[in-house]
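INTERNAL AUDIT FORM
Audit reference: QA-55
Scope: verify that the stored structure record matches its stored sequence.
Auditor: D.O.
Record contents follow.
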Amino acid sequence: MIPIPKIVSLPWRAILLIGLSLFVSKMVFGQVLEQGPEKNIYSLMEFDELEKVIAEQEEILKKEPSGITTLKILGIAYHNLSVIGKKGVSKKAFSILAKAYESKSDDYEILAYLGSTKTLLGRDAFV
């Protein structure tokens, strides 16, 4: 007789509950990850796409100058441009992220990118 794996020997209700939990978590977290323009900003490293995000966020910033989310996205986009080698944008990233940090000092993502941008400023000072 072939031994049946433990997962198969679970009661059908447990299997249904596990499947339903996975489905619901995929739906909830999938929606959270797909909302808003910040969805891919953390890993976005393509020049043209970053320029597009910056243009969009600067338009939003004109209408809402103190929007924390807009400042955060814009600062991260400028940070990423600096990472891929565009000259002179690390200063802009630092000023935008500093403004965002002044408004929301409990946002650790802003603080992390602010620190990274400070490092980029140091790198650019020697190049």
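Auditor finding: record pair retrieved intact. The chain has two domains: 1-35, 37-126.
Action required: none
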